[in-house]
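Notes to self after the call with IL:
- keep both proteins in one doc
- input above output, always
- annotate only the second one for now

Protein 1:
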Amino acid sequence: MGTIKQEHFIKAPAEDIYNALVNPFAIELWSGYPARMSEEAGSEFEIWDGDIAGRNLNFEKNRMIRQEWYFGEQEESSVVTIRLYEEKKGTRIKLEHTHVPDSEMEEMENGWKRYYFGALKHYFEE
């Protein structure tokens, strides 16, 4: 099991980025796929047409999202924490994704960079 840590910067207010991460209609706009998401702790979610699924653990409006991601029959929870830090010219995003199966590490790291935050950055900056 491994942990992925990344930092990204997007030229948009933290409130806008937060809303793009929790609003299913916004998620569909930047990801291009159907999404099921609720800003309610304990609710289940699906993004990328079900390729990513899990349970929302807790939220701090415009500041933090914590989710449990499902990886089959894995014993330990894979937990994703996304923190937003608003700066003068945009928002710094810090990601921590724990208990990622070793066999999934490289694909997950690239997926976060390219498809998740890459798509979000393109949505706000292009």
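Protein 2 (the one to annotate):
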Amino acid sequence: MAQALIDHIDPEAILLGVTADSNEVVIRQLASRLEALGYVKPSYADAVVKREQTMPTGLPLGLAENVAVPHTDPIHVIKAGVGLAVLSKPVDFANMEEPDEAVSVGIVFLLAINDKDKQIEMLQEIMGTIQSPEALAGLKQAASVDDVRAVLS
């Protein structure tokens, strides 16, 4: 049986009501949390920020909330995990398909995957979740880790 998305997200790496003025600030907040929890190396945050500049991950969903799924090479990862930030107000990420376009993002899944094959599986799992308007609304309204767990289980 496949694991649920929530099984990959450390409860300590769920940040709700995040205030940030740029996508880099959000990435660094989540990366710092993943580093403190032993998931990633100190090089991880810079690597994700650098990759986001050349290979953006903003996903325009055509819904009330858009999502970004920043990640980087497995060399910067100690063990697999996912960080989740729900922003109090959206920040711009570049569009994955049209890098010159900005996407206003309210939910960020930061991937720390140490196996390329698992990275593809995780991206597919996230894509399945975020295509549900109900799931996105539930994440946006989540007031606790338990609320997030209920939405993603």
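Annotation: Helices lie at 23-36, 44-54, 116-130, 133-141, 145-152. The chain has a mean pLDDT of 92.
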